[in-house]
Amino acid sequence: MADGIVETTGASGGLPDPAEWSCPAPLPDRPVVLLGHGGGGALSAELMTEVFAPAYGNDILSVLGDSAVLPLGGARVAFSTDSYVVRPLFFPGGCIGDLAVNGTVNDLAMSGARAAYLSCALVLEEGTELAVVERVARAIGTAADAAGALVATGDTKVVDAGHGDGIYVTTSGVGLVPEGVDIRPQRARPGDVVLVSGPVGLHGVAVLSVREGLEFGVDVVSDTAPLGGLVAAMLAVTRDLHVLRDPTRGGVAAALNEIAAASGTGVVLTEEAVPVPEAVANACGFLGLDPLYVANEGRLVAFVPREHADAVLAAMRAHPQGAGAAVIGECVAEHPGTVVARTRLGGTRVVDLPMGEQLPRIC
What we know:
This is Hydrogenase expression/formation protein HypE. Belongs to the HypE family. Residues 189-339 form the PurM-like C-terminal domain. With 363 residues, the chain is an alpha+beta fold. The chain folds into 2 domains: 69-176, CATH 3.30.1330.10; 185-350, Phosphoribosyl-aminoimidazole Synthetase, Chain A, domain 2. The chain has 8 helices and 14 strands. A 7-stranded mixed β-sheet has the order 9-11-8-12-10-13-14.
C-alpha cells in the first residue's frame, strides 16, 4: 500500500499472490496465527474451542462470559483479565492506559460487579521514551480512580527494540457480585428486549482515523469509559437482568451472535433503531465497513425481561453513560443461534459472526 492506494498486482506484475494478502480471514492451508484470531469473531471462537478449551477447559471457563464468577468465602467474586495491543498508543478520547482499565472494569460490570482491585502488567519495548510510559501510567491511575478501583499489584518487562510495539498492557480485576444477580449469556430468553447503551462504532473509527491519517469532516472521539455505575443504576431497577455484554472486538454483531449461540435463542435486530452517529456512518460507508461490526469501548448490550425493559431503559437514559440508550431488538424462539436484522427497506438479512476483525489492533 502506498499513499492509501492498495496495490492490485503481485511481485511479478500479474495477479496478486494470495500468500501476500494481509486480510485477517484464514487461508485453509496456512495453519498459523492470523490477526483475525484476535478479532473476537469466528477465528477467535475457533481458537478457544480447538486450542484453549481442550488444554484447560472447565465448568467455570465454559460459561464464556466477559468475566468469571467464582465462589469465595461465601461470596461471589467476578474475575477478569485482558491484554491491550492498540496501535497507535494515543487516539482521540483516550490511550492504551485508560482503555486497559476501562476494558477490565467493564468486563467485571458485565457480571454485575463493581471493580475493587486491579493488577497491571506492562511490556515495554526498548527505546520507548520514558515520557510516553509516564503518560500511559498516569492515564491508568486516573482511569482506575474514576472507576473506584485500586491498582494493587503489577509487573513490568522489557523486550528488545523491534520486538514490541512500544507498550503492551495487561490488566486483571476483581469485584464482588451482588446477591441475587445472575448475569450470563446462557440466560437470554425469548421475549427479552435488547437494549444498547448509546451510539456505536465510535472507538473503532477514532482509532482508525489516527492510524491511517483519515479525516471525516468532524472529529470522532472514542467512547472509552467505565460502565460500572451504569450497570449499578440498571440493577437498582431490577436484579433480574439476563445478559450484559460490552461489544468490543467484533462490535454489536459479534456480541449478539455470542449470546444467541450460548442461549440457543434467536435475535431479531431492527437495523434502523441502532444508534449510529452520522460521522461513523459516513466513515464506514467510505471505507466499506459495517458499523455493527466496529468495536466499542464504553457501550453495553443488555437482554432484559420485557416487563422491566421500560424502567431499565429510563434508568440508563438518566445516567451519563447511557444517555443515548435505545431498544434495538428482541430475543425470539425462532432461528436459534442466529441473528437477523430488519433492514430499512423492509427486508431481513443475517448478521453473522465476523470471521475476524475489520479493524485489527484497536484494543
